[in-house]
Specification:
The complex is a heterodimer. By secondary structure, chain A is mainly β. Helices cover 0% and strands 50% of the residues of chain A. Classes of the chains: A mainly beta, B mainly beta.
Chain lengths: 106, 121
């Protein structure tokens, strides 16, 4: 089974900061990686697929990169609405989520 | 508007069974892969199972539920089901009905609100 590991588990940041979340796969998944945002009490929202393709309506401050086993999600200038938990998910073989990265206010 | 409405959750004893259902509307149900994803409140997401649009050619499960859970769908009624047998405490979670894609890629763009399953004596 493919394992997904995110780091850090928690990230404390301020509005306007540039932040990066890393996701590592236990084996090559090419670019079959998605990113989701989940706020407390809300449903997950698909942000990015195929490692770097933004879903319609997702602000351009979000970007994704990577291939193979290492991927990143970057928010170029953190906004108040961005404080949430972010999950990566591989879909090369079935679907495995990372454990999540909570982005909290510093 | 895409709508996914789950039902069937509840409290069940270890070893018991539950059948979850999901009523889908607002899209062409019979061309989409459908999934169940679970989440322990406050914890992470776990993909549980998926079924092909025709309901028969492909059914897949996460290892921890293989042999105990069965996914099915009724395209005439736009309904997705999950039969859960031999339930364990570790199956306790919020179960989401989730729409996948028409291509088979296991990514999720619409989620139901979830139905809570609690396995406890």
């Amino acid at each position: 089974d493919i394992q997904m590991t995110q780091s850090p588990s928690t990230l404390s940041a301020s509005v306007g900061d540039r932040i990066t979340i890393t996701c590592r796969a236990s084996q090559n998944i090419n670019r079959w990686l998605a990113w989701y945002q989940q706020k407390p009490g809300k449903l997950p929202k698909l942000l990015i697929q195929v490692a770097s393709i933004l879903q319609n309506g997702v602000p351009s401050r979000f970007s994704g990169s990577g291939s193979g086993t290492e991927f990143t999600l970057t928010i170029s200038s953190l906004q108040p609405d961005d404080f949430a938990t972010y999950y990566c998910q591989q879909y090369d073989t079935e679907g495995t989520f990372g454990q999540g990265t909570k982005v909290e206010i510093k | 508007e895409v709508q996914l409405v789950e039902s069937g959750g509840g409290l069940v004893q270890p070893g018991g069974s539950l059948r979850l259902s999901c009523a889908a509307s607002g899209f062409s149900f019979n061309v989409y892969w459908m999934h169940w994803v679970r989440q322990i409140p406050g914890k992470g997401l776990v993909w549980v199972s998926r079924v092909s649009p025709d309901g028969t050619s492909t059914r897949r499960y996460v290892d921890s539920v293989k042999g105990r859970f069965t996914i099915s769908r009724d395209n005439a009624r736009n309904t997705l089901n999950l039969q859960m047998d031999s339930l364990r405490a570790e199956d306790t979670a919020l179960y989401y009905c989730v729409r996948g894609t028409t291509s088979g890629a296991t990514i999720f763009d619409h989620w139901g609100q979830g139905t809570l399953v609690t396995v406890s004596s």
